[in-house]
Structures are given as C-alpha cells and as structure tokens.
Amino acid sequence: MSVTQPDLPVVVIGAGPIGLAAASHLAERGLDFAVLESGPGVAAAIDEWRHVKLFSPWRYDIDSAAQRLLEQAGGWNAPDPDTLPTGGDLIDDYLAPLAKTAPLTDKIRYNAPVVAVTRLGFDRIRTAGREDAPFLVRLADGTELLASAVVDAAGTWRRPNVLGGSGIPARGEDDAAGSISRALPDVLGRDRERFAGRRTAVVGAGHSAATTLLDLGELAEQVPGTEVVWVVRGADQARTYGGGDADELPARGALGSRLHKLVRSGRVELVSSFRIEAVAKTADGRVELVTGDRRVVADTVVNSTGFRPDHGIVGELRLDLDPILGSTRALAPLIDPNQHSCGTVPPHGADELAHPEPGYYAIGAKSYGRAPTFLLATGYEQARSVVAALAGDWAAARDVQLALPETGVCSSNLAYGDSDSESSGGCCGPAPQTVDLAAPASRGLATGITGGLLTVVDSEPTNQKGCCN
C-alpha cells in the first residue's frame, strides 16, 4: 500500500537504531513522521547495557540513510568501520548525533510510551471502510495521535522471558522479583556492589549469559567471596562455547573458549539439565531455584533467558502471527532458530513483514518474535524496505539485499578480557566477506558452527549447533 492519509504522519514507535533508521528513510522520502520513544533519550534500552561491546564492527552498525543525514549535517566523523563499538558508543557516536540532525530533531518525542494502537472508529471485528481509517495511537499520558501508518520498532528489551522452564513464570517467580536482575547487568561498574562478595546464579545459555559470566569471573578474581553459578536447561553447552580450537576462525573460537576455561577452572560452577520449576525466598533472604529435588541457592539471579515481543498494544489490529515464534507467519520459516542461525537468515522486507492490517509493520527485534537471531544490519534493511513500501515504491521495497560478514555480528563481550592468544582480536576474524544467501544454509554467523538449535550429530558435544542469543 501507499500512505492513504497524506496529511497524517507515519508514527514510528521507538527511537533505537532501527526506529531512527526508519525515520531517516522517511525523511529522505519526504514523508511526514513522528517518533515516539518511551525513554528519556534515544535508545533508552541500549543505554541500560552501554558497557557491552557489540560483535559487529561499525561498518554493520550504521544505516545507510542515517549516515547520509549525518554527513549532510556536517560535523560528524564516521567511526572506524572495523572497530567494535559498545552500546554506549552506538548511542554517543551515532544515534544521539543522528537524533539532532535537522530532519529528525523536532520529530522525536521522548517519555512517550505507547499503550495502544488501533484504527480510529474500528475494533478488530469491523471491516467495511477499515483501510481508509487512520490509525489511532494512544500514549500512557492519555494523549492520542492519528497516523497514516505505524512502524513498530519498540524492540523486546522490556519484556524478558521468564525463568520458568515451561514458558510461564516458575512458581514464586513474581514474589522473588526483587532478587532477580535483568540481563546484562554492569557487573564491573554501576552494579558492582550487588554482586561483589556475593553468590550469583546466571540463568541462560546465550551470549548475554556468557557476557555476564565472564564479568562475574573477573569480579571473583578481584573480590574474595564472589561466587558464580551458571544454570542451564540443556545437557551440553557446545552452542555457547562455539567451535573452540576446532573453529575455522581462531579468534571466533576463542570467544566461547574463555567461558569454557572459566568453567574448567572451577571459578564458574555449571549446573546443567536444570529446568526451573519454582523460585522461593529463603529464611536468610537469599533466593532458591528448584527443579525436582535439586536446589540452587544464590543472593541474586540474573535472568539471561532471552526476550519476547509485546503484541498487547496492537491487540485491536489484525495481525497474522506465527503461532510458535510470534513473528509474521511469512517471516517465521526464514528465522526459525530450530533451523537457522544468524548467518543463514535470508534478506527480507515489506512483503514478509506485512500483516492483514495494511500500514502496520513491526520491524527490528520485535519482528523476530521469540527468535534470537536478529541482527542490526537485518533491521536496517527491513526499515528501508518498509519505508519504500509506504512511499508506494514497491520496486525498491522488494529489492531486498543483505551483505553480512561470514563471521558474525551478534552482541557480546566474549572477545575481551585476557591479553593472551585466547582473546586477541574480535569475533569477526579476518576481513568481512559477503554471504552467498543462495547457497544452502550451513555455518552460523556468530560462532561458525552449523545449523539451528536442534542440529546435533551425535550424543557427544559437537560443533553442530546454532549460534545466536
């Protein structure tokens, strides 16, 4: 569709990297728009993990239209394309200057959380005349805006997965919320006092868990009495450790090797095959994780189990959601983590992101639902394609392309810490290469190991599992 109410703006939800990319493309296309950000500044969610380094170098972290706006504004120096930024660098050196460019600065509204999106005068049931009705966007303060289209780049950071091993909160999990930390705490900085000299259980097997475990391992060396427990549902951790010494790229294999080394040394206690059934407070104020007759007791639990999208705010729109992932039904088979890792997700755009509700698109991490394989570069191509569709330029919208490094662009601090050969260099290894997306899916971007989450060659630990979280 093209925008059907030219006197109304396109509303972009979220002023993170994907939302601002969409805004940049809208500005280039000459379409009116408004960006609604729930936090007090750009990329408020990323600001909470600004201490974490990205896997991807700058060359994959900057949207093309956004870069053009920054260069036109003047006074902006593009970062070294081969340097790995932290979340804070992403904000300070890219997103904050972008938000101050003339086409965007007056279009972004902060402290403006969206609580509902619907069609003006239409609930989900009514059909006749529906496509001609503008969108109604309601904010938490009761303010309402009318929009010609809605681009939802709200992300998933505010809705972490639960600790419970069955997809619902474990018994007592809500009551123990004060003892549960969200993913990626700043263990060595802002949140140090919460963990120093105390016992922490990290739950999860992805890169956010590994990042936190490595920081806790370093803290344990600095502060006596600091104890670290790693709680995972699976029986072997090959997916988290990656290819190790057998990996095709030594620097990439070293990422998981640092964590494996911590576990072997005993500085991190590994508790596997532990599907949390209950969470309880102990008499001395600690927190206890329970499965069957097994117990893990800690002062703090870090929930690194991933995230899920919140579709509640668009409950009155007509969405075609995959029943498993919560992405669009068309996108689901392209991103299914049971079959795909980061690097085997093909390029996709407006067609795959469309819902039965014309003019509404979720892009960015939210578009992936509960699949953990989202990449910034993928989100930028989504934004470009969707904006082209809203402008009625379907040739551009359907010309989706994606050039990714063969060696991975997920987010982690895993490559940093030790000065020996196990941590020299970043995860991206040698010079970036373009992925042949027409070739059969095989090696994942983040670790170089093959297949999706369910790919197992035999019962022994292998290098044959998917990569990203």
How is this fold's topology laid out?
Layout: E1 10-13, H1 17-29, E2 33-36, H2 44-47, H3 64-73, H4 87-99, H5 102-105, E3 108-109, E4 114-119, E5 135-139, E6 144-147, E7 149-152, E8 180-181, H6 192-195, E9 199-203, H7 207-222, E10 227-231, H8 238-241, H9 250-265, E11 269-271, E12 278-281, E13 287-291, E14 294-298, E15 300-303, H10 332-335, H11 350-353, E16 360-362, H12 376-390, H13 394-397
Parallel strand pairs: 1-2, 1-7, 2-3, 7-16, 8-15, 9-10, 9-15, 10-11
Antiparallel strand pairs: 4-5, 5-6, 12-13, 13-14
Helix pairs in contact: 1-3, 1-12, 7-9
What does this structure look like?
The chain is an alpha/beta fold and 469 residues long. 24% of the residues lie in helices and 14% in strands. It has a five-stranded parallel β-sheet with strand order 3-2-1-7-16, with helices on one face. The longest helix is centred in the middle third of the chain and has 16 residues, at 207-222. The radius of gyration is 22 Å and the shape is globular. The model is unreliable at 246-253 and 406-469 (pLDDT under 50).
Contiguous helical run count: 13
How far from one another are the termini? Answer: 34 Å
Overall pLDDT:
84
Low-confidence stretches: 246-253, 406-469
Number of strands: 16
Helix content: 10-25%
Main sheet record:
5 strands, parallel
Report the order of strands and helices: EHEHHHHEEEEEEHEHEHHEEEEEHHEHH
Radius of gyration: 22 Å
Please give the order of strands in the largest beta sheet: 3-2-1-7-16
Shape: globular
Strand content: 5-15%
Based on the structure, what is the oligomeric state of the protein chains? single chain
The helix-and-strand class reads alpha/beta
